[in-house]
Amino acid sequence: MGGSPSFPISPIAKDRIFIITGANTGIGYEIAKWSAMMGATVILACRSEDRARKAMETMQEEFKTEKAKGTMGLTDSPILAIEFMKLDLASFQSVVEFCEEFKKSGRQLHVLFCNAGLGFGSYKQTGDGLEIMLQVNYLSHFIIIAKLLSIMRRSGSDCRIVLTSSSAHKGGTFDLATMNYTGTAGNFPGLNYYGRSKLYQIMQAFAMSRRLKDSNVTINSMHPGFVDSELFRDADTCIEKCCLRCFRTCGVMKNTLEGATTGIDLATNPKHTGVSGHYWASCKVTTQSSTSRDEQKQEKLWKETFPFIQKYLTEEEITYLEEKSQDHLRLEI
Ligand SMILES: NC(=O)c1ccc[n+]([C@@H]2O[C@H](COP(=O)([O-])OP(=O)(O)OC[C@H]3O[C@@H](n4cnc5c(N)ncnc54)[C@H](OP(=O)(O)O)[C@@H]3O)[C@@H](O)[C@H]2O)c1
């Protein structure tokens, strides 16, 4: 954690509300901390209250240090406006409860940062019967977007959704028949399924940006780079451990602040107002796989996603998702 920022520090009004998933560590921690240091009210949506509260204490300490250094543009407030809300993306019930609780608060929502994710380790199935990366990285975030979109649409100009994807999407197979892995745990192609979950996020962002065209809400996805975070905490094979040691020694990995830079820029930089439907890396629009750009495949994915999630959405929420642009209906799917 820490380091010097290489992004513009833009003052943000305290009544701009950000939700950042997986904000207790890694890339999400830095995005949450810097957004709050610029003045936003930031909700850390995390599965462990203990880890989130410890992270919030560290953020307050690092804020004091940053102020003492004389960093320009930080909020005048003596403490950061940061809050915890419980969210376990591996449980659809937790996702629904999180959204209901936020809705009940009656607050606006200006930035929804779908950042939490997992990517290594052996095959795991959630209590909802799904391969865990499909649910945590893609489906649960899809539900949150669907449930909170109506609030964002009523939250004034310049509302932003950002999805932390990965260049690993290029290694993910587009095979919707096997979206949820049902093979044996021993044969689980983990990296491929991680790549798929990240591919789905990019494709969702493109499909969603068509539906949000000309609205007050933008949506973008991004690759943070190869970042030395806790993402690799479950990397347990000798090869994985050896590779990680080499990467760390060679200095090819970014630290978490460097990894968060594109995300912070997308969430806070005024120059990105109204900019939607792109995939970013190193603070620039960048190219992604041809599969992810294929509009027909994006619409197929959109359609095939609903059987997994529709029972957690109301008719109204589904209609809301579809209402803005009808262009996608003209595609042959
Ligand atoms: N690191 C990289 O090289 C890299 C590269 C490309 C993309 N990314 C993406 O960047 C994002 C952030 O990853 P990171 O590198 O910062 O990893 P990280 O340090 O492991 O942070 C991941 C965050 O996601 C949270 N999370 C995991 N499972 C969750 C669940 N079931 N419910 C709620 N939160 C959950 C973690 O919470 P706990 O602390 O409680 O586990 C943690 O806060 C991920 O989407 C990842 O795929 C990372």
3D architecture notes:
This protein is an alpha/beta fold. It has a single domain (17-318), classed as Rossmann fold, CATH 3.40.50. It has 10 helices and 8 strands. The chain has helices spanning 26-37, 49-68, 92-104, 132-153, 190-211, 238-250, 256-268, 290-293, 295-309, 315-322, and strands at 17-21, 41-46, 82-86, 111-114, 159-164, 217-223, 279-281, 284-285. The protein has an 8-stranded mixed sheet, with helices on both faces. α3 packs parallel to α4 (132-153), α4 (132-153) runs parallel beside α5 (190-211) and α5 (190-211) crosses α9. The longest helix has 22 residues, at 132-153. Mean pLDDT is 93; it is low at 325-333.
Briefly say what this structure is.
With about 325 residues, the chain is an alpha/beta fold. It contains ten helices and eight strands. β1 (about 15-20), α1 and β2 form a beta-alpha-beta unit.
Q: Calculate Rg over CA atoms.
A: 19 Å
What is the residue-averaged pLDDT? 93
Uncertain runs are 325-333
Task: Please tell me what the overall shape is.
Answer: globular
Query: What is the fold named in CATH at topology level?
Result: Rossmann fold
Structural class: alpha/beta
Distance between the termini: 45 Å
- Please identify which CATH superfamily we are dealing with: NAD(P)-binding Rossmann-like Domain
Helix content: 40-55%
- Strand arrangement, major sheet: 3-2-1-4-5-6-7-8
Strand composition percent: 5-15%
Order of helices and strands: EHEHEHEHEHEHHEEHHH
What is bound: which ligands? Answer: NADP nicotinamide-adenine-dinucleotide phosphate
- CATH architecture call: 3-Layer(aba) Sandwich
The first-level CATH class name: Alpha Beta
**Biggest sheet character:** 8 strands, mixed
What is the number of strand segments? 8
